[in-house]
Write a structure and sequence with these properties.
CATH class of the largest domain in chain A: Mainly Alpha
Helix content of chain A: 55-70%
Distance between the termini of chain A: 30 Å
Shape of chain A: elongated
Number of domains of chain A: 2
Strand content of chain A: under 5%
Oligomer: homodimer
Order of helices and strands of chain A: HHHHHHHHHH
Chain lengths: ~210, ~210
């Protein structure tokens, strides 16, 4: 769930500090998508942002610090999971958002994933953002249980969400397949069928 | 399906050319797992392999050439998909192989995925290897259809295989989760339940 990374809504009304942060993070996003992690430098970011290099060094310290803050800014966005009225619809909409973020040319989401292979700090920040987003999405499963779509109270929401979204990441990021417009819906429906058949049930002893 | 990359069975009996290739590719694997893609250099490989630099440059040209040949060597291995007698058992065994290759510390498979974000050549070679491996695994689905496990002749084998294996890659490579010993079996069983419920059916008009 990387789509919020593409927005720039960390520009809250605020003083000079907030404005400088917005300029610098915009520059990081632009540099990352243009040149990738290997081309990301403190100097390049300062120049593009029109901010003193000393300010960038003092506040973000190094490239890892810039990456962490770009990811943190994505987490500050007021993102809401889809609410279409059915689990299949919700997962399809979620997968469509994910697919859009991954097929963008260039894709900031993919650039950040690439960067996280080279920066422990960025990897930790990205893992945390994903953990938060999957936790937010658990409501999709809770709503489906309330609607009686899953026929059980004992569904492991996170496993279900990973199963639904993983094929998108695998196909687009690792297998580098051409985008398949049917995949968001197909992956969602396969997961709903599996869930209805009890695939993500938590065993009794685990749920107590 | 990256597990064969960890072996060194490209050492076929052969002359000096084959021996030098084996030495150089062993050195590439060792350097990659030790220092990652960023630390991989022609000089480092030549030194570790005990082969003249000029030979390495002449035959592999650049780091991209070395990566492509390491991936090609993995494709030359006589890898066979599991054959346990059931689709669920086969997919579980396959996922266990994948999980092992991804949790290895250091993991050559993960190092190659990281490298493929920085080398177009490596990315193409890796995509080709994965395409071949998934094609090899289609026999798992064909056998399941013959055994009557799926109740239909019209199952899209590749989609099923992607659904079964994607959660492993997503959890281990992108989400950097701790290895979950239950995941290989859980992901396999969820996919079998989805398949039995018709999730990967090819629509009539598409299969004609």
């Amino acid at each position: 769930m990387t789509e919020p990374l593409d927005t720039t809504s960390d520009r809250r009304p605020g003083g000079r500090t907030a404005r400088i942060r917005a300029q610098v993070l915009d520059a990081v996003r632009a540099e990352l998508t243009a040149h990738g992690h290997e081309g990301l430098t403190m100097e390049g970011v300062a120049t593009r942002a029109g901010v003193h290099r000393a300010t960038v060094y003092r506040r973000w310290r190094d490239v890892g610090g810039l990456l962490v803050d770009v990811i943190a800014a994505a987490g500050e966005i007021d993102w809401q999971p889809p609410d279409t009225g059915s689990l299949s619809g919700d997962l399809t909409a979620l997968n469509q958002e994910i697919q859009e973020s991954l097929v963008a040319q260039p894709s900031l989401a993919v650039a950040l994933m690439a960067a996280s292979f080279h920066s422990e700090q960025a990897a930790r920040a990205q893992t945390q953002l994903w953990t938060d987003r999957y936790a937010q999405c658990e409501i999709l499963v809770e709503r489906a249980i309330e609607r009686g779509e899953l026929g059980t109270q004992h569904t492991d929401a996170r496993s279900l969400l990973i199963a639904a979204t993983a094929p998108l990441y695998h196909q687009m990021v690792l297998l580098r397949a051409d985008p398949d417009p049917q995949l968001p819906e197909r992956a969602a429906q396969a997961t709903v069928l599996a869930a209805a058949a009890g695939a993500f049930c938590i065993r009794r002893e685990e749920s107590v």
